[in-house]
Amino acid sequence: MAQLHIHRAHQLGREDARRLAQDWRVQAELAYGLQCTQESGEDQESISFARPGLSGRLLVSAGAFELEARLGFLLSAYRDRIESELQKLLDQQLGPR
Q1: pLDDT per residue over 50-97, tens digit each?
Q2: What 3 state SS string does the chain have?
């Protein structure tokens, strides 16, 4: 099983970061067929996501986006492409760094 870890610091603040987390969730569900569950906490949002062969979590705080994912055996062969797509999706949501 392959692991992915993507970290993006930002200076959006808590409320803007929460809105972006919700946008990310919607786009991930529509574009990639991920089943997502979002939990709101006082300090961060947690979005768990899954589909066959892929599961993970996006943690969103006032200062960072932290994505961790586990790829099943078949998807492990596409690790680099999947990581690139996930990075692109986060980067699109965050805008220019």
Answers
A1: 999 999 999 999 999 999 999 999 999 999 998 898 888 778 777 764
A2: CEEEEEEEECCCCHHHHHHHHHHHHHHHHHHHCCEEEEEECCCEEEEEEEECCEEEEEEEECCEEEEEEEECHHHHCCHHHHHHHHHHHHHHHHCCC
